[in-house]
Design a protein that fits this description.
The structure is a homotrimer. Chain A is mainly beta. Chain A has three helices and 19 strands. Chain A has helices at about 1-20, 120-125, 135-145, and strands at about 25-40, 50-55, 60-70, 75-80, 100-105, 110-115, 150-160, 165-175, 185-195, 200-210, 210, 215, 220-230, 235-245, 250-265, 270-280, 290-300, 305-320, 325-340.
Chain lengths: ~350, ~350, ~350
């Protein structure tokens, strides 16, 4: 009780202006009308009209801030909640988007909490369709077999400063699952990149350990990716390999490549195209999978904070030994995105 | 990782003032001490002392904003979370109150997401007790049989401009439940109204489809309602009909009428009275129900943002064939409402 | 629909400046890297590396405000959500930290909702390690048997003004569990304190009723506690007794004492020590328990809003009849806390 009163007294003394300099409230509301059909997940399902959230970017709101501590040192934080704008439902855990605190200085940045991995940062920078949800890359790779974990809990991360265009980042995420008989597992992710003017090239590595009865169930990802901005168009692309083990025995590997092009075709209008091909080569005979996907999209920039968009995504899956059809996913979306 | 750093850099550049012009944080905290008894739901239950949330308006917090896009075009959004102020618990889904994005201009407004229906807007405007939770109207109609759905997910809505006092709105909400054998269902809601000075009259229609094995389980609502502000008092009232089908066969209909009066009786003091009568006429013999309810309330306006209130709500339910008592609901509330 | 449009219109008219004067967005992000081991809860468990939330203060965000109603009267509110900064997960109910509304004036303060109890306020003011989560006091007492409930729902509270250093507070929390056969139960909490310059002494009482088949399962807590600030160091301490009944029969009582010292040892550096001893004397022979705990900690103040810290907490539990070891809890934490 008394605590509340004191808090209110402090509020009165500090004033609103001071309060507002320490935190920024921000977000994105993105919704579209469209049609979706997914015969990969549900064979026989029909195309239906939907109102959905996050055609371009997942709807979110958050709080973030940065404090100058003097001597070049800074403290910062970011808390970001994801939700479905079509229903108002929470999309996963409370601050699924990010929940982190960091200290930065000449030495770089050290961060604690839940956040995107360094690997995810490189995939994002080189993703097709401006790294939006319309990109076919992640969905197609997941449909072939699996893709990397984009955000991790219990993470300690370090991001280096940039030296002559070179920079790097590494993150370890503790699974905190040690028992009296088994050691704890963890995720490790790192990124090295070179950025100079219109060019970006980078290498990413991510190893995801999971506990298993008979040994380790691990996934290991490697990525070589880049982008080049020609002015009239920007090209992005990458090549990713993945290896999967169950109980320490390899069960398969997955090779994926993707590219994208985006171009400003008129004032306030951009068009985007992206393509991805992913093959899962199973150790078990006859279980190979091939998935391919593409997206064609355009957006109309209404302001710095708002744009309207249209996009069509198409993913096909087939058995890569027999060529047997395993379904397709299609999405047509016409929507609007607003940032605040 | 790197993404966060970039975001922080953007924050530093934009400054807090700019950030604050794009979003407004708002809310209502409403709590009361009182007694409640509900022998309709729980026969034999006793009256007990409670601390509850939302005597007048459901406690909420939200974010909203509007952006001028030029040329008369605007973009806007609203995200509103409901909670119980007595326990801090979330009341339903994350943004149960509203989760929407809209574009508006000379053509009217188009909105996407979760929001109140046009029908609900007319019922709200003509509801007794200033459309607060103390109103007996909705609770009594629900106790007789059922009432309309006030907010819908996956909604596309259009609100017309006003022409000489006339305006209208229509919304379609997609249930996104199409299967390989059954078509998708939806909710449709519309409103036509005429407002001129102290007078408001309107008509509302809402059809709620639900999927059923043997056919459709539908509810159809019609509302004729209005209000007139005499200055010394404001009168509101309406007449609502509802028809219910199960597996395409009509199971009953429900007629309800309600009225309310509110008057400023002294400086900063208003008194309110509301009455509602709802009869459910079942196709099945002997199952007719009658429910009547009334509320007497007063509020003391402490400021533009804060008022104290007292109210008493009484609902009685009986078998409309035999007159047999089916219980009552009573609530006495003394509370305070604060908006921010 | 139309409601939203009206709301947006109001927003445009009021402007952001006015909006920001009525609510303050605030919070704490606290995360640490460390090791934890708990063989009290899980015998045989090993020490493991963790990233956790809230080494000093539970991570939180909230909204609060105060409005001057004129004539010395004020309205205020506070809504506070707790979360885990290491995962972004919600820690309990939506506004677990606080969900309250209050009116205050010359008569004192009356508050409604969910909030900390007056008893908790006194324990907090006299808690070791500056009332942070590193304090051994609560954890040790809970491990011996049980501790008081720090926050209650459905609460009506009154906080008196201060008369010559004396003040008091009382709160009643309704469990709202009346049935047709059993009366409702409730929690009652009160506090009396005297504060004068460097001295604070206080008495707290809290009775927690729970419904039981054979009678009442009650817990009654009494606390005598104080603090004295010598300038070079601040001492805190208290003595707490607890009595537990099951079905109206006493099952045991628990005596606990604790003390702490904190001192500014250098510019921007503080060190802290706290100790607690708690004995549970069971009516049933042979079930007596003794738990002791201590914490050694230090923090480095980086700014008014940010500090780095290190702390080590150690709790031991044993059978107080036989002296048999019942496990230990240890935690080492190196972290950072940032308030916004």
């Amino acid at each position: 009780m008394k605590k509340s009163l004191i808090a209110l007294a402090v509020l009165a003394a500090s004033g609103a202006a001071m309060a507002q300099s320490s935190v920024q409230l921000y977000g994105i509301v993105d919704a579209f009308v469209g049609t979706t059909q997914d015969t990969i997940k549900t064979p026989g399902s029909k195309s239906q009209t939907v109102v959905e959230s996050g055609g371009l970017k997942s709807s979110r709101w958050g709080m973030k801030g940065s404090e100058d501590l003097g001597g070049g040192l800074k403290a910062g934080f970011k808390l970001e909640q994801r939700f479905k704008s079509d229903t108002g439902a929470l999309d996963g855990v409370n601050f699924k988007g990010e929940s982190s605190i960091n200290l930065s200085g000449n030495f770089g940045t050290v961060a604690l909490g839940r956040m995107g991995t360094p690997y995810d940062d490189l995939r994002g920078k080189t993703n097709a369709i401006a790294d939006t949800n319309l990109s076919p890359v992640g969905d197609t790779i997941k449909n072939a077999k699996a893709d990397y974990t984009d955000k991790t809990d219990n993470t300690v991360a370090y991001v280096s400063p940039t030296f002559n265009g070179f920079s790097g980042a590494v993150a370890v995420s503790f699974n905190e699952d040690k028992t009296d008989k088994l050691d704890a597992t963890s995720h490790t992710s790192l990124k090295l990149q070179y950025a100079n003017g219109p060019l970006l090239v980078g290498y990413g590595y991510q190893k995801e350990e999971a506990k298993a009865k008979g040994g380790a169930d691990d996934s290991t990802f490697n990525l070589l990716a880049g982008s080049y901005d020609f002015g009239v168009a920007k090209l992005v692309g990458g090549f990713q390999t993945a290896e999967y083990t169950v109980a320490n025995a390899q069960v398969g590997d997955q090779d994926s490549y993707y590219f994208g092009v985006q171009a400003p075709v008129a004032k306030n209008i951009n068009v985007y195209f992206g393509y991805v091909n992913s093959k899962y080569d199973a150790v078990k005979a006859g279980d190979d999978v091939k998935a391919t996907g593409y997206t064609l999209a355009a957006n109309y920039v209404l302001s710095k904070r708002t744009d309207a968009y249209i996009g069509y995504k198409n993913i096909k899956k087939e058995n890569d030994n027999t060529g047997a059809d395993q379904g397709k996913y299609t999405q047509l979306a016409v929507g609007v995105r607003h940032a605040f």
